[in-house]
Amino acid sequence: MTSHMLHRDVLEKTSHEIAKLEGERELAEREIAVASAVEHARAEVKLGKVKSALTEAHRRLEAQVGEIVKDADDHIAQLKAKAKTAKGQATQQLRSTAEQLQQRRDTLATKLASLKHATAGHWSTAKAELDTSLEELRKLRESGASGGA
Prior knowledge:
The chain is mainly α. Helix content is 89%, strand content 0%.
């Protein structure tokens, strides 16, 4: 199993957890709005626990995507180093590939930032955009972006 597949599985698990927790957070907030004093206190405790778990899940997702971004940064640096010693058309190809990877990497980082602030209602859309960015980065790397590595 490739590291991209492992990253994808871990990201998917964390993503599902966040979506579930966002739903639980919204439910707990609705319960608070209609609760009696005792129910209100229980709902507040539940909301605190869900928010804490949600914060932790978001932290894990950010770390997981951060690892993918770091891998992309390393790959970009390798391509740029190879471009310095390459000859002829290979130099331009390596530079072009590094630029394309940099663009995909930057898009991925932007999508992660938007995902961090997505509410339950927008989670699916934001997650789909992150998945698309991850897939584009993966495809570019697999389609010869290794620069002969």
